[in-house]
Every structure is written in structure tokens, then in C-alpha cells.
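As the next step, I wrote out a protein sequence along with its fold in C-alpha cell form, included below for the reader:
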Amino acid sequence: MEFPNNFLWGGATAANQIEGAYNVDGKGLSIQDVMPKGIMAPPTEVPTADNLKLDAIDFYHRYAEDIAMFAEMGFQVFRFSIAWSRIFPRGDELEPNEAGLAFYDRVLDELEKHGIEPLVTLSHYETPLALAREYGGWRNRELIQFFERFAETVFRRYRGRIRYWLTFNEINSILHQPFLSGGIETPRSELTETELYQAIHHELVASGRVTELAHEIDPDNKVGCMVIGIPRYPLTPDPADAYQALYESQLDIAFGDIHCRGAYPGYLLRHFREHGVELDITEEDRRALSNTVDFVSFSYYMSVCESADPDVQVRGQGNITGGIPNPKLEASEWGWQIDPVGLRTLLNTYWDRWQKPLFIVENGLGATDVLVEGPSGPTVHDDYRIQYMNDHLVQVGEAIKDGVEIMGYTSWGCIDLVSASTAQMSKRYGFIYVDRDDTGAGTLQRYRKDSFYWYKDVIASRGKALKRR
């Protein structure tokens, strides 16, 4: 099929996984600077040399080269995040760091030169470390005003240059990874549900406030939420399993409901009552929540099954959101189950539920790539990635035929970057190979993989190059 003319093709990244330069030009520390093992180990007291994110892939100095390669592929949109601690090094200052703002000016200059639309995430797992350690992260209501100051600063600085904004990356992930998602250093096992949902509530209020602010500063701004998208199927035809899948799905989808409808849904309020969750919600909070988003964006990597039977609660490897492996599906090297049809299912579910435009802002395959010599120099023969993305994009096309309004698709890790979950370089997602390994060794040279040319053809043909299998 041929995708619509206004469908935006591109790729996605996060500042903490690509920029490096963690202490350059006045940047402060973020939580990522003390997470050398990703989510697999507790944070360190100070940055350590084995943290690949400190240098990452040096996008900070190589952004022009990388953006030129994105343009060569035909990107129409590039999703990146503005590192909060580059603009406000501690997070609580009254005045921003000009050098940090100037860096993103230069990035936008390059994107404009190549006609690439920016899609910017305000908070992508990079809470300033001072806000985590001195304020307790998003458990503290004070972070709302700090985030609002940060957002207003970049909204005004880049007015007319950035039209598409996302507030919090995968906002529902605090329930599973409180430090990564909310800057909360207390171990997950020691936090109550009230503490976790209060932290998310503060993020939701902040999201509502900055959504309103974005529209006031520039009526052309479009603001979206961003959630983890994960279809949950009943493991068996047992109605109890079907309801368990629904219940778990509701806990995932609740934050999209709040962003789109402006209030807490009844099923979540019942969950609060039955689990002793009591939140501090003010009337001003309720007014802030009423500022609904313009579109919904989400990540999609896998689906899972659910069962009401406690004897089959086996969790899949690498899945931070729970769930039971589906016996009908194959899995990636990192244990994430591959389900292209699940993406079509999710798109239809979200569209039917919210009737707001949808944006697929993360989807891709983490795999071990091998650099080999090709006719035009080093490359990677990544047919496995091409197959994965082809099959998922075919299902996006089917959803468009179903009548779903989809704004675009940004593949995750369009250039190799440091994995958020494992802090490895060897878990590669990109169309562009970056010469750096898990020890930090390498030249940082960029090489085009086979998937680079495949994606270029898909974009140029507006999807007609995709193959149904």
C-alpha cells in the first residue's frame, strides 16, 4: 500500500543515550549519569568510568554528520529530547544555562537545513540528579514548578521552530522503574502504591500545565502524551483470563485516559479504593488535568499474555511491565516477543478509545550486529531488522486502511545508541552502525547498514516497497 502524503517518516532517540558530553558547557548531572548498568543495578553515588552514557555516541559534537545521514535516508521527522540538566543543571535554578540552549539552536539549524521536522520530548528518563537526591524526585510536588519553568523556557526559546512536543516519555513506567522514570531513588520494593501513584500524579499535573502553556505561547504547538503500548492477551479462553488481561490493560491505559479525557477514570479510582491508595489531589490539580493533549504517542515493542491462575505467572525475560510469554510468538535476543499484528491491534484500540491522532514514536529491534566488509566499505547485513520493521510497518498500513489516523512513525534508535535497559552498545537498534563496544572502545565512526538503504526505499516509495509475508 501507499501511505498518506502527510505521514511523517523518521527516527527517534533520547539525549542521555546519544549526546555524551555529560559535563560540557555547564551541563549538570542527570540520573542517567549514575546508572552505569541501566535498570539492572542500583545507581552509583557519582558517575563512573564504565558508564557508556557519559560519552554515548558523541552526538553533541557529531550532530551535523548524523542529521545529514538521517536526511540521506529521507527522514521527515526526528524525535529527540532536550536534556533538562543542560538547560537547568540542577533543575531548580531561576535562570537557564545559555550554552545548553545554544546547543539545541544548532541542532535545529541542521534539521531546518535538511527540511526535517523536530519532535521533542521534554522529559525522557533524564531527571536532573539534584532533583532526585535533594527533593526525592517526582514524589515531591515542588518538581511541578521546576518542570514548568524548564518547559516555558524552551517553548519561548524555540517558538516557531518546534511544533510537536511530548511531555513525559512512557509516563506509566514509574510503576515499574521509579528511579529511571521518576527520579525516585528508594527501591521499588520499599515504595507503596500511594507513593508511586502520587509521583505519577505530580507528573500528570505537570503535563497538563505545560500543555496549556505550550498552547498559550504558540497556538500552532501540538502537544502529545507518551505511553508504553503493550497489548495484553488472555492466555486461555477462560473468561477469568480475559478479565485479567482487561484489568492489566486498564492499568496501562489509564494514563492515556487521563491525558485524553482530563480526569481519572472510574476503574482506576476503584483500584485506588481497593488497594488503599490515597492521593493528595487539589482543585488546582484537577483544573491542570483538564488540559488534554492534541495527540497520543506511544512505544511498541512486544505483547504479552495474562492469566488469573497464580500458578502460571511466569515473567518474560527483559520485560519491565510484567506479563506471561505468548507460546505462539518468537522472541528477540533480549526476550522481547515479536508481534507485528499487536501493533495494528493497539492502533485500533487507541483510536477507538480516544479518537485522537496517534504517533508511533518508538518501535524497533535490539540485536547483536556484526560489522563486515562490503563492496562500499564496512556494513551490517541486518536482514533480521529489515524483516522485523517491514512486518510491523505492513500492520501500520493495515491500521490506516482500518480508518485509524496515524501521524507518523519514528523507529527507535535510528542510529546505534546506548541501551536504556542494559546500558550496552551491543544491543543495537539503528540503521547506522556506530563503532563503539560495551567497554567503550571504538572510533565512533558511522557506517550505513543494509537497513539504512531499505528504510530509504520505504520512505521514498511511501511504503510501497514494503513486502507482505
Remarks:
- The CA atoms of residues 27 and 86 lie 4 Å apart.
- The two ends are 14 Å apart (CA to CA).
- The longest strand covers residues 222-229.
- The longest helix spans residues 193-217.
